[in-house]
Automatic annotation (TrEMBL), chain A:
GO terms for biological process: phosphoenolpyruvate-dependent sugar phosphotransferase system. It catalyses: L-histidyl-[protein] + phosphoenolpyruvate = N(pros)-phospho-L-histidyl-[protein] + pyruvate. General (non sugar-specific) component of the phosphoenolpyruvate-dependent sugar phosphotransferase system (sugar PTS). This major carbohydrate active-transport system catalyzes the phosphorylation of incoming sugar substrates concomitantly with their translocation across the cell membrane. Enzyme I transfers the phosphoryl group from phosphoenolpyruvate (PEP) to the phosphoryl carrier protein (HPr). Its main location: cytoplasm. Its EC number is 2.7.3.9. Belongs to the PEP-utilizing enzyme family. This is Phosphoenolpyruvate-protein phosphotransferase. Its cofactor is Mg(2+). Keywords: Cytoplasm, Kinase, Magnesium, Metal-binding, Phosphotransferase system, Pyruvate, Sugar transport, Transferase, Transport. The lineage of its organism: Bacteria, Bacillati, Bacillota, Bacilli, Bacillales. It comes from Melghiribacillus thermohalophilus.
UniProtKB/TrEMBL annotation, chain B:
This is Phosphocarrier protein HPr. It comes from Melghiribacillus thermohalophilus. InterPro entries: HPr (IPR050399), HPr-like (IPR000032), HPr-like_sf (IPR035895), PTS_HPr_His_P_site (IPR001020), PTS_HPr_Ser_P_site (IPR002114). The keyword Cell membrane does not apply. Gene3D superfamilies: HPr-like (3.30.1340.10). The lineage of its organism: Bacteria, Bacillati, Bacillota, Bacilli, Bacillales.
Length: 568, 86
């Protein structure tokens, strides 16, 4: 049986399903011995829980990072909360009930109170409270944690959703794959899986119902397929794909530490796209020469209030420090469109992708934008920072954004806070208007990065999620390719460098073409970097330029695909 | 002793400001009770404070009683005046 989900972390996994049901253990209301004994076992359970959380905290700080470990600091503080500690003890004494019962009721009471308040932050705290409550109750009842104890080598974790406290306990040595019923590319489980390099598929509806605990299952993190009740053919098929992939990965390893260089010695740059600080590690493992796109939306989403300057500063600093001398392009806030943020008042829009988003929103809200710019500037002393504005469609926007950047610099200077003096600032080219006036824009910025996902959708006027017009969302359309060529030429004419951070930058058939057009930097999913380095090593610039000449004279997408060996 | 306070920081008594508050009052022996609209909460319990749903612009009453109530109240005054940052 095969089910389809969303592929969020590459790789193939075959293993034994460990289903995280989140089921609650049975709680007896009556106490076993005296009040005093019950209180004592409550205290012991608190203490054991504290030790356990402390251990997980240290483990996840080492495995994933300090940021992730902070979740457990919140858990530790709940263990000391007088409402819980004293409240439960009082209930045991006054009602003569078991500690587990008293705690369960206390937690339920608080959760009910939380529910009356509509607030994202409280929802997260509610999750923490539930987690901690369950842990202490487990200790009281002597029930073991399903995720910690049942996890053997070769496990595939299956859950409705993986809370941050669970993902932080995932042992990458034991877990081969992760499947969740909910979520998308930017859900917590997805980001963690990518950061840990574990194949994962999310959004597989009703998966838990269809799975037997302990059954052998498979998942394909490239295609998003999940295989239940594995038959022999499927098993063989996955095995083969896995071995092939492994062999290919091993072969590509020889490109680690090598320059990205054409046959005739021209050096290019291969960078990684990341969406959270944790992913910088993966970028380095794949020998990225920089970060070509660090999306900052994660800081703003799934919460109830704006991140302050300090929090942003810490996130940017973490990535800059990790990457050392390698360039890190941080893109300023790109919300709106399909990425909405509940606590900011976005108007309902008929055409969100043609609406109030990205730099358009930021320029209307300079107070919000400047917090980010200040945080970026402050972080700049910790590495090689470049700042990039998204969704630019005219020169005024560039000037206005740079004016605010200048203001932020003035402010910091007057507060005697230091920042680098030579930070490059550039723009994404993702609207056709920006591409067409790229010669003028190039005079006012330090670099371009071509955002192909939006550039294609706006150029073709087609939404790739709309099945009726998805075929028109076509990267091989001569119109798209000519526009990209125009942008690269305009940049070089003005002596600035130009990169690409859309999905096309890692598309194997198009890399030679972009190479021939003169693209300076290719930024992509970390997993595609070594393969792209191999492709570039097989071409000389004269060959690649010839290819460009030929392809740009073709009249249809299918001819282009044929010439680029897409069908082989 | 009792005192009324207006909460002026952006996010009210939630998230970090609430933890800052709890961590500060915990160091005093006195009991701290926060009241809003007839509901009350132990000022040393983050979980309880959160259930009051205190937002920017709300007026709350804080009662402190115990051996170091004066110092505690002064500290709370300072804390709220400085916008509960810490």
């Amino acid at each position: 049986m095969k089910r389809q989900g969303i592929s969020v972390s590459d790789g193939i996994a075959i293993g034994e399903a460990l289903v995280i049901t989140g089921q609650e253990p049975d709680i007896q209301k009556d106490m076993q011995g005296s009040v005093q004994k019950e209180v004592q076992s409550f205290e012991t359970a608190l203490e054991n829980s504290r030790k356990e959380i402390q251990n997980i905290r240290n483990q996840s700080a080492a495995d994933i990072g300090e940021e992730q470990a902070k979740i457990f600091d919140a858990h530790l503080s709940i263990l000391e909360d007088p409402e819980i500690v004293d409240g439960v003890k009082e209930m045991i004494a006054s009602e003569e009930v078991s500690a587990a019962y008293a705690l369960d009721r206390k937690v339920t009471e608080l959760l009910q109170l939380f529910e009356t308040i509509d607030n994202e932050y409280l929802k997260e705290r509610a999750q923490d409270l539930k987690d901690v409550g369950r842990r202490v109750i487990r200790h009281l009842l002597g029930v073991k944690d399903e995720i910690l104890t049942d996890m053997k080598e070769g496990t595939i974790l299956v859950a409705h959703d993986l809370a941050p406290s669970y993902t932080a306990q995932v042992d990458r040595r034991k877990v081969r794959g992760i499947i969740t019923a909910t979520g998308g590319r930017t859900s917590h489980a997805a980001i963690m899986a990518r950061a840990l390099g574990i194949p994962a598929v999310v959004g597989v509806k009703d998966i838990i119902k269809h799975i037997q605990p302990g059954e052998t299952i498979g998942l394909d993190g490239f295609t998003g397929e999940v295989f239940l009740k594995l038959d022999n053919d499927q098993f063989q098929m996955l095995r083969e794909k896995q071995q092939k992939n492994q062999a290919r990965q091993d072969k590509l390893k020889k490109f680690i530490g090598k320059k990205t260089m054409t046959k005739d010695g021209l050096v290019r740059e291969l960078a990684a796209n990341i969406a959270a600080p944790e992913e910088a590690e993966l970028a380095l493992e794949n020998d990225a020469e920089g970060i070509g796109l660090f999306r900052t939306e994660f800081l703003y989403m799934n919460r109830t209030e704006l991140p302050d300057e300090e929090e942003q500063f810490e996130a940017y600093k973490a990535v800059l420090e990790k990457m050392g001398d390698r360039p890190v392009i941080i893109r300023t806030l790109d919300i709106g469109g399909d990425k909405n943020v509940t606590y900011l008042d976005f108007p309902e829009e008929l055409n969100p992708f043609l609406g109030f988003r990205a730099i358009r929103y930021c320029l209307e809200h300079p107070e919000l934008f400047k917090v980010q710019l200040r945080a970026l500037l402050r972080a700049s002393t910790y590495g090689n920072l470049k700042i990039m504005y998204p969704m630019v469609s005219n020169l005024e926007e560039v000037r206005a954004a740079n004016a605010l950047l200048e203001e932020a610099k003035q402010e910091l200077s007057s507060e005697s806070i230091s920042f680098s003096s030579n930070i490059e600032s550039g723009i994404m080219i993702e609207t056709p208007a920006a591409a067409i006036i790229s010669d003028q824009l190039a005079k006012n910025v330090d670099f371009f990065s071509i955002g192909t996902n939006d550039l294609i959708q706006y150029t073709m006027a087609a939404d790739r999620l709309n099945e009726h017009v998805a075929h028109l969302y076509d990267p091989f359309h001569p119109g798209v390719l000519r526009l990209i060529k125009k942008v690269i030429d305009a940049a070089h004419q003005e002596g600035i460098w130009v990169g690409m951070c859309g999905e096309l930058a890692g598309e194997e058939h198009l890399i030679p073409l972009f190479l021939g057009m003169g693209l300076d930097e290719f930024s992509m999913n970390p997993g595609n970097i070594l393969q792209s380095r191999e492709i570039i090593s097989k071409w000389s610039m004269s060959e690649a330029r010839e290819l460009v000449q030929e392809v740009l004279n073709l009249t249809s997408s299918s001819e282009v695909k044929k010439r680029l060996d897409f069908f082989k | 002793m009792k005192n009324k306070f207006m909460i002026t920081n952006e996010s009210g008594l939630h998230a970090r400001p609430a933890s800052v508050f709890v961590n500060n009052v915990k160091s005093y022996q006195s009991d701290v009770i926060i009241r809003k609209n007839g509901k009350e909460a132990n000022g040393k319990s983050l979980m309880r404070i959160l259930t009051l749903g205190i937002s920017k612009g709300d007026t709350i009453e804080i009662e402190v009683s115990g051996p170091d109530e004066k110092e505690a109240m002064a500290a709370i005054q300072n804390l709220i005046d400085s916008g509960l940052e810490g």
